[in-house]
Design goal:
Elements lengths: L10 E9 L5 H10 L12 E10 L2 E10 L6 H4 L8 E7 L3 H18 L8 E6 L12 H11 L3 E4 L8 H28 L38 H4 L14 E2 L1
Parallel strand pairs: 1-3, 1-4, 4-5, 5-6
Antiparallel strand pairs: 2-3, 2-7
The structure holds guanosine-5'-triphosphate.
The site of guanosine-5'-triphosphate has 23 residues, from helix 1.
Cofactor: Mg(2+)
Catalytic activity: GTP + H2O = GDP + phosphate + H(+)
Main location: membrane
Length: 253
Amino acid sequence: MTNMRPPQKSKLLKVVILGDGGVGKSALLTRFVSNRYEENNFHTIGVEFMNKDIVVDGERFTLQIWDTAGQERFRALRTPFYRGSDICLLCYALDDRDSLKGLTLWRNEFLNYADVDQDKFPFIVVGNKNDLPAQKRQVNFEVVQQWCAEQKIACHIETSSKAATNVTEAFVLGLRQWRHMECVAEAELRQQGDTIDLTRPIRLVQRRICCTGGGGGGGGGQDKDADGDGDDAAMRSAGNKMFAKAPATNYRL
Ligand SMILES: Nc1nc2c(ncn2[C@@H]2O[C@H](COP(=O)(O)OP(=O)(O)OP(=O)(O)O)[C@@H](O)[C@H]2O)c(=O)[nH]1
């Protein structure tokens, strides 16, 4: 007889990585999944995906990560894969100011094809190649923060796939922001549920469970929160000011 808890099921989330050709999307994915870096990558044609398991704040996730082709000529090949996404990483390169300008187009393209609510979707802005010397930098951190604020995007992080800096952190940030958005959606549903219009017939609505860990998102997970205590402080803090602060490292690969 044992009182051990049954192993927790993994929640499957779809993550899509977007950004101009050459900003380092494939390098980011390869570093995160395989901890490898290749200097001479071929351009991605269409899309490629890889899975990665990760435990964040005690919760198990399988991330299905879609690396998309940044070149315009592959647009028609990549856009069908946006639908069903749970998290979107918008990438630019620190030595390429045009790639930052491109983020508006990438976000719009994603919103067009993914059919999500732009204010309730976890976008993470990722500035890659922060290993480069200061004289090569064309994109200032504060300028990106300003752009994020205008777009109501709460999360921005600088990474280096080459030097393995902040790569896992970028995905963890995405997960935490996803969790935060789920909690907000759950709170809204709860609020709606608390208001009963007595003049209308009562219909039973199946609600998404969020903070307790089940259902929700496009991931279709059904597991329960391991602690059984709903969300935690790390997740609750994910929403507002995540710009300058490095995410806490409570994760396990
Ligand atoms: N210095 C530096 N160079 C990087 C880094 N990540 C990628 N690169 C370089 O940028 C090149 C392009 O990286 P990719 O990962 O292929 O870029 P991509 O965004 O996937 O490009 P597309 O497939 O065309 O969309 C690589 O061959 C590397 O030389 C990084 O963190 N630092």
